[in-house]
Write a structure and sequence with these properties.
- This protein is of the alpha+beta class and 169 residues long.
- It is built from five helices and seven strands; from the N terminus they run E-H-H-H-E-E-E-H-E-H-E-E.
- The chain has a seven-stranded mixed beta sheet, with helices on both faces.
- Strand 6 and strand 7 form a beta hairpin.
- It is globular.
- The relative contact order is 0.17.
């Protein structure tokens, strides 16, 4: 079955929060002390997701299969330690459930990300990706993203090293 894509509303905040917690934990949970992971996930509250879903500075895409959230992407304003050369936007998150990885859904979602960034007038698209997430990095490189530096991403008290990547649109 093929996932359907749609623009979520604030009513989808609980589903997105649950999907984020599930996907982040499945992908990265083994890297962290349980207290650090819990502290990080506790900061991703349903009210916080609702605020972002209602904020026009952000753009979201939700992927569903048989009524179940199986992926989401979030674009947002400048927050990473980068110096853009013009109008920019960030890919803040792109997560899929484990059963959707390798299904082609990520590519469909990335097509939306790039089209939406362009529609919003961005000339650069930035993201950060964990240094040991080789699969994701290869995925982004296929779209033309290039490494432009490093970034410290905090999970509780644990500092991860991320690659900062940039795509010229």
């Amino acid at each position: 079955m093929t996932a359907t894509l749609r623009t979520p509303t604030v009513a989808d905040a609980e589903a997105i929060a649950a999907l984020f917690a599930e996907s982040f934990t499945a992908t990265f949970g083994h890297l962290y002390d349980p207290a650090d992971l819990a502290a990080f996930l506790d900061g991703m509250t349903v009210p916080a997701w609702r605020r972002e879903l209602a904020d026009p500075a952000f753009a979201f895409l939700l992927a569903e299969e048989e009524g179940r959230a199986v992926g989401f992407a979030k674009l947002g304003p400048h927050g990473l330690p980068v110096t853009p050369t013009g109008p920019m936007i960030e890919l803040r998150q792109l997560y899929l459930t484990a059963d959707q990885q390798g299904s082609g859904l990520a590519a469909r979602m990335m097509d939306w990300v790039i089209a939406t960034a362009r529609d919003r007038g961005a000339r650069e698209l930035f993201l950060s990706v964990y240094v040991d997430n080789h699969r994701a990095r290869r995925f982004y490189e296929r779209y033309g993203f290039a490494d432009v530096g490093r970034y410290t991403f905090m999970v509780g008290n644990h500092a991860d090293e991320d690659h900062l990547m940039r795509l010229v649109l």
